[in-house]
Amino acid sequence: MPDLNPDRAALGWNPWFAEQARLHCGPADTAARVTSVDRGWLVLLNETGVFRAQLSGNLLHSARAAAARPCVGDWVCVARAGADGFGSVQALLERQTSLRRKAAGAVGEQMIAANVDCVIVVQSCHYDFNLKRLERYLTMVAEGGATPWILLTKTDLVAPEIVEGQIAEIRGAGIAAPVLRLSNVTHEGIDELQRMLVPGQTYCFVGSSGVGKSTLINGLIGHAQQETKTVSGSGEGRHTTVRRELIVLANGAMVIDNPGMREFGLLDAEAGLAGGFADILALAPQCKFNNCTHVSEPGCAVLAAVSAGTLDRGHYDNFLKLAREAKLGALSPAEKRKKERAFGRLVKSAKKDR
């Protein structure tokens, strides 16, 4: 039965997972962490080393939804059998934190990574900096329970005052997450980032394609683990990471790279709004009504701050957009269809009136 051993603890194992293993693992099972998923095969890692495994028939049957199956960062119970050393995954241990989004073009959710301690949101200072997208990322991170950091890359391509202005925008939006600046060319900030990566902790890098995530991880590893392409004439890299992978660094910290994500849907934005809108949520208790929506109510402290210029209008508009998305995401499929039909009738009625 899996327990609290120090070798496994170096991979992120803790009392939470030990208790989950006690409840779900069989006497002959061992616990292992998922480092990558490749066409039905899982690459697993534990104190004995790296090995491959597939889901057992029972788990395949019970975990029909993709999000209920193991992803990078998960802990699983696995039975080792046969001379080939392959394993059979018997159970997925409950996740302590998660990073997920709406599945692109489909109903449901897509797991990005699990059991992540810190999510590092990467934006390039050159062309990629976008405050609204950053707020969206931070909302997703907060919803999953991980700690967010912000990493501004390619500082060598812009003047120092531009970087300072971007940091001022971040702070002006009420975002309190740590902000690091980094250049893979001049190596500014790399030593500071390395000092912040704690052994036994898991860090997931997310951001748009070409912002320098894979190049950065190559530098942290010390060799070209992730393939990268040369920087284009515009200064933006061409992205090549096609699958997620958990990598153990020399100091014992673990990092996960991700394919670029410029657009994504939020599953439970309401639970994560504090991640990017702490300033607005701090004003909410001062509103006249407890159920204030901050749209048109009299005595709304948020609207008063927008009118006074102490709260940025664009920041406020993005808050309303994500709040509406949170409300829509909380509806059942039947409720969503009903809402869509009602909207369709409204459009038809408006056309007839014209």
Automatic annotation (TrEMBL):
Required co-factors: Zn(2+)
Q: Which residues form the EngC GTPase domain?
A: 114-262
Give the record's cofactor note, including how many are bound.
Binds 1 zinc ion per subunit.
Query: SUPFAM superfamilies in the record, alphabetically?
Result: P-loop containing nucleoside triphosphate hydrolases
Question: What InterPro entries does this protein map onto?
Answer: G_CP_dom, P-loop_NTPase, Ribosome_biogen_GTPase_RsgA, RsgA_GTPase_dom
> Could you tell me the EC number(s) of this protein?
3.6.1.-
PANTHER family registered for this protein in UniProt: SMALL RIBOSOMAL SUBUNIT BIOGENESIS GTPASE RSGA
* Name this protein carries in UniProt: Small ribosomal subunit biogenesis GTPase RsgA
Q: Which organism is it from?
A: Dongia sedimenti
* Gene name as annotated: rsgA
